[in-house]
């Protein structure tokens, strides 16, 4: 059994082809999912060409290939798959948690406790639990062909917050 939120390491990026090798678990080749035709030159591109020296993605190169990159706010708050979760918990939220357009401010405002307010403390724990469940659910969906369940995210988040 593995812990939640573990990362999968590709290995030597120079030996993995970005488009033609099935380097994502439980996923066919990216080439088979491309929105347009991939040139012969591009089809021979190794994965290392899209990774910076410290191992982070080269977002500038990826943006030229992909129509849009997801933002933190989109993944955790604004995506149609998770927005209903936040709308369910809206009655518990403090402040304007759906209106802030800066991910850092949104996270700090909802995770940092200012004072000894029991309602605020309960919200910060619940907020953290929801983030964890959204991330875990998304990874299960992407990497294990799991199903996406808003109800499951809600119930698991409530259970985690209650157990804390």
From TrEMBL:
Q: Looking at the record's lineage, which domain of life comes first?
A: Eukaryota
The protein's name in its UniProt record: Uncharacterized protein
């Amino acid at each position: 059994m593995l812990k939640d939120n573990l990362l999968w390491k590709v290995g030597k990026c120079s030996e993995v082809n970005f488009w033609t090798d099935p380097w994502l678990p439980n996923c066919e080749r990216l080439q088979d999912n491309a929105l347009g035709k991939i040139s012969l030159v591009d089809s021979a591109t190794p994965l290392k060409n899209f990774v910076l020296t410290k191992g982070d993605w080269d977002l500038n190169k990826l943006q030229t290939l992909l129509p849009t990159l997801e933002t933190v706010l989109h993944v955790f708050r604004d995506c149609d798959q998770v927005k209903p979760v936040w709308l369910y918990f809206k009655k518990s939220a403090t402040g304007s948690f759906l209106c802030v357009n800066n991910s850092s401010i949104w996270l700090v405002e909802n995770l940092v406790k200012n004072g000894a307010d029991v309602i605020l403390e309960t919200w910060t724990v619940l907020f953290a639990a929801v983030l964890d469940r959204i991330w875990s659910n998304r990874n299960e969906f992407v990497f294990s062909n799991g199903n996406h369940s808003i109800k499951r995210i809600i119930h698991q988040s409530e259970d985690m917050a209650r157990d804390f």
